[in-house]
C-alpha cells in the first residue's frame, strides 16, 4: 500500500514558474500500429484521418495510467491524453539543477508483494510484467508534543515507544487494539481489488472466485470475529469506541494514522482501510519500501506497461471538452481544436468537479450535478521543495519525518501537521553528490479560502506564501538539526493551493472528496452518460495511491468481457 503520508502529496513541478526539460521525448508516445502520436499533442500527424481509439483516457495520473495500461493489456486500442509535458499527474517527479524531486507519493509498502493480498498498484504492475526495484526500511522520525522519537513498524518495537512516551496504559490499550483487529485482516484482504468490475460479471470474477477463501477466513475468526467483520464498512472509530480505548496518546495516534491514510480522522475512515494498514505495518518482518529511482519510477513503469501492449500516451494534449452525441460520450475535443474519437468509451481521471466542467450544460441530470457540487472537499496544500548541501547533516538521517505541533487542535487543523521526506537518504542518485533533496508539506489542511482571488504576481500573494510556508521551514529545521541552514539551499520552491488549482486542474486545489465513512460512499465509476466512466480519487474506493490504482483497474476490467478478465486473474495467480 501507499499511505497518504505519501498519497496526500498532490504536488507538481508545474507549481513553479521555471523552464523544465521534458523527461522523455516522443518515445513516450507509441501507437498500436505503425504510427505514433506526437509528443506535442498534434495527433493528426499520426493518423491518416481522424484520430481515434477504442478508449480515450483523460489524464495520466496513477488511476488513468493503471486504467489505460490494463486496457492495453486486454488488447484494447487505448490512448491516454495528458495536458502537461510530464506524465503521472500529481504523482510525477521533476528535476532541477540535478535534484530529482518527488511531487507525490513517497511512503510505500507492498510494492514488491504478489498475490491476493498485495497492494493494488503491485497487482497492476504484475499484470503488466513490470518490476519496481525498491529500498527497504522500517522506521521514521516523529516529533510530537510528548517528545521526539524514532517510530518503527512491526509488532514489538512500537511498544517500547509507547512505554516511554505514553505509559503502561497506552501499551495495554495498543495490545488490546491489535488483538481485536488483526484477526479481521484476513477478511479485509480476502478480495483482491483487481478482481472487481462494475457490472454483474463481478459475481464470477470476485464473488464466486473468492467465496471459499472468504468463508475460510470467517471460520478461522470464529463467531465473535465474524461478527466483528460486519464492522469493516463502518467508521474505524466505532471499533475503537467498542474497545473502550481512552488513552489520549492512543486516540491521537490512531487519528494521525487515519488522516495520513485517507485525509480524515478515525471517525471518517473505513475500518477495512485501517485494518489493512495495521496488517501491513504491524506484522512480523514487515518493511516499508521506496523506489530506487524515486516515485517517478512508478509512473515510468506504468508507461512502459502501457507502451509494451500497444497503448499510446500523448503529452501536451489538453482536453477542452468531452463530446456528447445522441446522449453518449463519443470522444474529446482538445484545446487545439482536434477531435479524438472514442469507439467504446471515454474515461476521465479528473476529479468529479473538473469532469463536470468538461461536459456541455444539460448533459447530466440536475440531481447528479447537485450531488457533485454538494460533495464536501478536502482542503489543499502548502509545499516546500529543497535541494541543499548535506555537510553538517547527520549521516543517520531518516527518510521520513512527521511533526505534530498541538494534539488539541486536531491532526486536521491547518498549519498543525507537517510531513517531510528526504528520499536521497535511501537513493543518493536523486541528488548531486554530497547533496540532499527534500519535500515538506502540510497535508490537505491548507484552506483555499485564504488564497482565493489573489493575484499570483502581487506582493500580497508573495507575502502570504512567506507567512504560510514558515511552519514548514521550522519543521525542516527541527528535523534536520543545527547543521541545516536555509541559506545553504541551492533550490527552494514553495507551492500553494492556487498552484494546485492552476496546474493540476484541481477544483479549488483540493486533495479530493471529504467523504466520511458512515455518512456517504465514494461514487461508482459509471455516470448517467453512456460510455463515460470515471476513475481516480473521486470514485470508489477513494483517496490514496492503492485506492486510485484499484479504481483504474476496476474501470479497465468493466470495459472487457468477463472471460478476458478471468484470464488475466489466472495469468497473475489471483
From TrEMBL:
- The protein in question is named Amine oxidase domain-containing protein
Q: Where is the signal peptide?
A: none
Gene Ontology molecular function terms on file: oxidoreductase activity
Q: Which residues form the Amine oxidase domain?
A: 62-557
Q: Which domain of life is it from?
A: Eukaryota
GO terms, biological process: carotenoid metabolic process
Coiled-coil blocks: none
PANTHER family listed in its UniProt record: FAD_NAD(P)-BINDING OXIDOREDUCTASE FAMILY PROTEIN, PTHR46313
The record ties this protein, via InterPro entries, to: Amino_oxidase, CrtISO-like, FAD/NAD-bd_sf
Lineage summary: Eukaryota, Viridiplantae, Streptophyta, Embryophyta, Tracheophyta
One Pfam family name from the record? Amino_oxidase
